Amino acid sequence: MAEELSFPTGLGTSDATTISLLGQDLAGDLMGQVGFGELAFWLVARRRPTRGETRVFEAVLVALADHGFTPTAIAARLTYLSAPEALQGALAAGLLGGGSRFLGVTEDCARFLSQALDDADKRDSYDEIALKAVRATRRVPGLGHPVHKVEDPRTPVLIRIAKEEGCYGPHLALFEAVGRVHPKKLPLNGAGVCGAALADLGLPVDLLRGFALLARAAGLLGHLAEERRHPIGMDVYLTVDRNAVYEP
Amino acid sequence: MAEELSFPTGLGTSDATTISLLGQDLAGDLMGQVGFGELAFWLVARRRPTRGETRVFEAVLVALADHGFTPTAIAARLTYLSAPEALQGALAAGLLGGGSRFLGVTEDCARFLSQALDDADKRDSYDEIALKAVRATRRVPGLGHPVHKVEDPRTPVLIRIAKEEGCYGPHLALFEAVGRVHPKKLPLNGAGVCGAALADLGLPVDLLRGFALLARAAGLLGHLAEERRHPIGMDVYLTVDRNAVYEP
Amino acid sequence: MAEELSFPTGLGTSDATTISLLGQDLAGDLMGQVGFGELAFWLVARRRPTRGETRVFEAVLVALADHGFTPTAIAARLTYLSAPEALQGALAAGLLGGGSRFLGVTEDCARFLSQALDDADKRDSYDEIALKAVRATRRVPGLGHPVHKVEDPRTPVLIRIAKEEGCYGPHLALFEAVGRVHPKKLPLNGAGVCGAALADLGLPVDLLRGFALLARAAGLLGHLAEERRHPIGMDVYLTVDRNAVYEP
Amino acid sequence: MAEELSFPTGLGTSDATTISLLGQDLAGDLMGQVGFGELAFWLVARRRPTRGETRVFEAVLVALADHGFTPTAIAARLTYLSAPEALQGALAAGLLGGGSRFLGVTEDCARFLSQALDDADKRDSYDEIALKAVRATRRVPGLGHPVHKVEDPRTPVLIRIAKEEGCYGPHLALFEAVGRVHPKKLPLNGAGVCGAALADLGLPVDLLRGFALLARAAGLLGHLAEERRHPIGMDVYLTVDRNAVYEP
């Protein structure tokens, strides 16, 4: 069976003498001239970020890279303990926990804000939009934090950086309004404010979890490097196994 | 059963008002001041890279981020096609191909060079060390490329950047010597030279695959963003399925 | 810090001379006396299935084990091509496609039927319940098939086996009623009828995807064994790569 | 570009009215007539096992299905805690630990025995072959167990079942000989004897890890079902996190 096949892509291509990426000459135009975070933004958004956008974007990645012994970090370390020859498996195991509960807030918060902005009466102030959105939902993603009960230290810093770089837009404004009008006076958490900032950078809401995963990939590598030098995986395993209690 | 438990880490910790990462105040000292690539280096190496080291390191990540429709990129897109609600699964599936054949060269090349340097007679020149190492092995990892048969365009650029930043060390020097003395006159490929450059930055050889995986994570996000906008996964699947031939 | 730790489990425990699983002596009571499918049912449901239940359950697993070159099978083969030294990664990559679109129907269909039964007026016939449920939904999971447009050959066989073994219950009855009353006269597909059969076995709806994954694990091993003997992964990759077209 | 494409497979194919698997009519010949373990064997070995072979094979799968709170089971539970909406990710994370250390013994033991048999002088007795093989290696895979220091209860049972079914062959015979001649008098562990039994069934040594993974998939589903009903993942996480100690 003969057919005309065509698989379009705007990413990488190569021939005998050149490698192109995003329509650029990889060696001549990108290596040494584009930062890694900048390239990650460009790969997803298909436009090169400005210097200010890059700073906000990298601040988000830095904010999300690691949170110590999260369930995903522990899962990665246990997988490395069991299969140290396949680093990719340990990293993948860690990323697979990047779902709704522990890494989803960034995307969920941005989706909540984005939806509220889409639905808003254009004459309403941010506080009015926020009040309506808060009343229409059971739980606002990105509000409140189990540890940082008064203020998440990442929140004011990211808002300041976004303002410094001219990247403070409607999502961050609405999120701040949500914090003001919400009856429970809960702090805006860092994962949520990261989502608002990424949405203000024009990144697609459906892929924001992807940036949280990229950030976490760096954090997980840090954990795996530490597990290699100073392992705790065996102790975690033995702590659980030795305290196992049979219950029919 | 009561026991004294202690899980040491040098990465992240937090309390009600602060988040620390690598002994720094995450919000005050890192966000907006440290680039993402710089942080990834720091997390693994446990030391902050200099500005020049960061430039070399990010050039490596940029060089390794994407190579178009690799098996891993196709696997990630097919997984996204099947389970679009779990982006983390598609990313993980792509990374799981980061093993010996398609992503292992970076680490394998660095290990080969590192071993040759460890074994070398200190009075030997790089060409002499290279000649002995080449003769003692069946195949040098990082030598030759199926497409870039004369020169991999990434190679001279990365060597130049390393020299510009004062990061050209024994691994790159030995790899260039290998290229000079090898009887087959094969080009030094980009993945190999990246491994040599990372080793010259003092990064642990056993974890170099991790940096290739981090770089590839950005490339895979680019593929998944493209698959969302302009999918090819279904066409790949149908191309295979419609041309399936039963052979007992 | 000292604490009382206790991790309860009803699965496996062991000491120097015995291994227990599910409260049984693994070596004395299970090995050689319990089939693998039977054990899988027992592990999830926490009760040993009868001989008839086991036959229905294994018929479902056999029905779902393989469907040729699915996206998940291709993803597993491409991952094996890239990292042949880590079979677990190739298997995991294949399973990661077991999400909403290609493997979710089994669970989704059971959930739809289960919900309709919960909501039903107890005086209604199955056809009446089916009609109300069909009218209340946009799309019934498990109805229709892209290839088996008239009848999925697995459907009548599984219904017959369930009846033979006394395991034909309300979920299968309602699913057949859905087929009768639905205006489009679409066939009941095999994945859907498997979901109905598993629900009639009393297995928890939220975990039915798990059985589809277990079945698929066996199919994926078949693909990986075939990829080892008679590879097609490289051809898939080259077919895509050689027909890549750059589109900005 | 037009090309002749052909992707051969001996597994599944289908058309509008039939589904074939392994050259059989899936609905007519396999469902309800072939057990799941039997099918898994057939998919990999490409021959239908006898009733006796199936019993030995399923005894192996039952023996390997679960070992309580292993690192892989804990990793799966932590991943389920973080991303409960993606069961496939939790299962995949658990399988990714199926590498060299915790699940590799089965395959490694079979490879050791297989190599020793290949290298053997045909006039040697099993004890003589065993003695040479033991002397030539640093560590015999499958010998010794951290908990079952005197005897692994699975070992005599699996050997008995293999003998009952006429499946006791050179690998099991040699493994028993290894146990007799080894100077340390270590017990033959269950994972190792499973590898020897699978090799005696004629299954390819390079894929034996795959059967350990399939068995473990069932065990992991049991853990995930238990985690859903009676979770311990959060307690594991909190135990680690609350006892984290910062060490620069």
Automatic annotation (TrEMBL), chains A, B, C, D:
Family that this chain belongs to: Belongs to the citrate synthase family.
Any one cellular-component term (Gene Ontology): cytosol
This protein's UniProt keywords: Lyase, Transferase
NCBIfam families for the chain: PRK06224.1-5 (NF004868)
GO MF entries: citrate synthase activity; lyase activity
Protein name (database record): citrate synthase (unknown stereospecificity)
SUPFAM superfamilies linked: Citrate synthase
Keyword flag Lyase: yes
Enzyme Commission numbers on file: 2.3.3.16
Record-linked PANTHER family: CITRATE SYNTHASE, CITRATE SYNTHASE, PEROXISOMAL
Pfam families assigned: Citrate_synt
